Queue: 2 jobs
Job 1
Amino acid sequence: MTIALGIPRHRPSAVDPSSYRLPADRPGSDALIDRFGRAATDLRISLTDKCNLRCTYCMPAEGLPSQPVDALMTADEIRRLVGIAVSTLGVRQVRFTGGEPLLRADLVDIVAACASLPDRPEVSLTTNAIGLASRAGKLAAAGLDRLNVSLDSLHPDVFALLTRRPFLQRVLDGIEAAGHAGFAGIKINAVLVRGVNDTQAAELLDWSLRSGHQLRFIEQMPLDADRSWSREGMVTAAETRESLSAHFDLAPDTVPRAGAPAELWQVRRRGHHRLLGVVGIIASVTEPFCGDCRRTRLTAEGGVRNCLFAHDETDLLTPLRAGADDDTLARLWQGEMWRKAAGHGVNSPGFVQPERTMSAIGG
Ligand code: SAM
Ligand code: SF4
């Protein structure tokens, strides 16, 4: 099933700074604060909602209707908005995602532009690694600091079942090339799907530890295009820990979590003392961490979203193209973050899945 992207958007009608006022109850802070005392310092930017995989928990088999190229932010527009975010709004980390960000021909330029800003943020990328083999060196040279690669199975048949594409080897080649290009501490993101790869958690962890990568399991969230997510079908963080515990001893990591979504566990072989590394488990559904959320998001079309599960967003691209100054854009961004809800609501009885899917928001 393909869904239409009829996203409610706050579209500022004028670019005159006086036409947009922040709510009277908002304190006069430059930061991206909300009503619940949180300040967003971590910006996720989707560069495209296109992808060359079709992960069952994310995209429909037939893909999503593609956006016209001129609807997407250009490299210059991204640099301008990231510049405002870091110089005025207190953002310290920028992660490029999608869809598949490697599908942007200008990805290296975008990374270089953001990494050369005054008040340089930490710049990272979440990718499926297809095509990374030929671009890892250029991305490193452009100033990319960190890399997360999504990989759900080491078995070609299971990988193909989950992603609907037979490209496991390309992903493995991309990860290897990234290591040769100097990326250390690559994080591997895995989603477990019941009946498909849920028996492979320990194998993925074993491979990650041997390869020097940090594995993180992410609970499947109701952001799939097919709308087939169910609470019963989802593999929970507790189940993941239990399945790993058949092979490894897990102990809570001693490093403070500091707002990070992943809960880290120290890993040892069962009955052994030697610490092998850590594994992260992101329990977005069963143990939500919304109270510590530090995220703000930009869609590929320049819409600010205050949460993955938000039902609307504020358009920054239209006013930017109409000549809005930095101060106006900053205040529009602050206004959207002030509307952020206390939590994502997935566990509330009235929960409604947002119109946009994960690939169209940027995970
Ligand atoms: N294409 C890139 C990739 O796969 O890494 C970047 C975009 S993808 C949307 C970012 C992350 O979101 C991936 O790690 C993916 O596994 C995760 N993801 C996608 N759909 C999800 C869902 N419904 N629940 C939880 N995580 C999901
Ligand atoms: Fe593409 Fe990433 Fe979604 Fe998989 S998770 S379909 S690779 S955007």
Note: Residues 29-361 form a domain with the TIM Barrel fold (CATH 3.20.20.70).
Job 2
Amino acid sequence: MKKIAILGSTGSIGTQSLDVIRNTPNIKVVALTTNTQIELLEQQINEFKPDIVAVMNKQKAKLLEQKLRGSTTKVYGGMDGIIYAAANTGADMVITAVVGTVGLLPTIEAINNKIDIALANKETLVTAGEIVIELANKNNVQIIPVDSEHSAIFQCLKAGKKNEVSKLILTASGGPFRDLDKTALEKVTVKDALKHPNWNMGAKISIDSSTLMNKGLEVIEAKYLFDTNNIDVVIHKESIVHSMVEFNDTSVIAQLGMPDMRAAISYALNYPMRPKNEFIPKIDWTKKLNLTFDKPNTELFPCLNLAYYAMQQAGTMPTVLNAANEVAVDLFMKNKIKFMDIGHIIHNVLDRHICIFKPSLEEILETDMWARKCCEEEVML
Ligand code: MG
């Protein structure tokens, strides 16, 4: 019986992870966490009977504790509670499905406790990639990507040796605005940005997809996961080819599937086994697939190049990119800035940052706070 903890079980990846577990024998859920959604968490507790749950919002944690009086599930609150849930339940694997930098400390704590990670929280690697990977290597902890592109690359890399890889090719759907021009982009609303054409995802990642920052964060995530700077991005509207690896001999190995996150989640949970997944739709080869590939428009979608810049600078530059993006997306969702402002603001914050190379965890956390403040100043200017 494999024991699993899920950080962020009420979000998009969290609920899809539970659906995979529902359809996979011999997995026991030992811990679940949420930010605020205690009603959904309560349903999950009734179905999966975890030993412990944690709620980031302390008042809601209290409320849930009262409701669960007499139950065998223990309730913890706040960041300490989330960290406890990540590391103290005897889990064999933690699925980090929270959104944003809040995933960093619980992930580090799980790694320190030698628990394998199914990584769905890309911001953790973007903000502190060097530290997290070094720590995982030191503790002999496996980080198995759940992001569909990185799961694809992880699978494709099995076709050759590390020194035979010439480059990684990340596919991008291009998001809901891929066919718009500048005038149209200036007018898009939050509602438009939340409508992703192919994937069923949470709000933050949907906005990130619409700016191409999601792909930028994924380029940095790939750098740390696979230890290379040779990463290309190609627009592939159909989201059937999840990503590819080009080898020295010019062969390209791709991984394909329907755009359904449960496939990548199942791969991470069952690795290195591949169970029969009747619940996930298969590609129907009798229908015309018309797979298309194109280059990204970095003039209209500058966030991708900002991410490449941050990756090349390394040190704390990706930390700043990520924090500024989190704040800019939040401001956009609150209608305080326009869609096209997102890239400009991140650009300005990156410009103001004096990069720290080989930062400590404290320096990363300080830089993260600095970038958030700086981003808010940019909007007030
Ligand atoms: Mg992805």
Note: The mean pLDDT is 96.
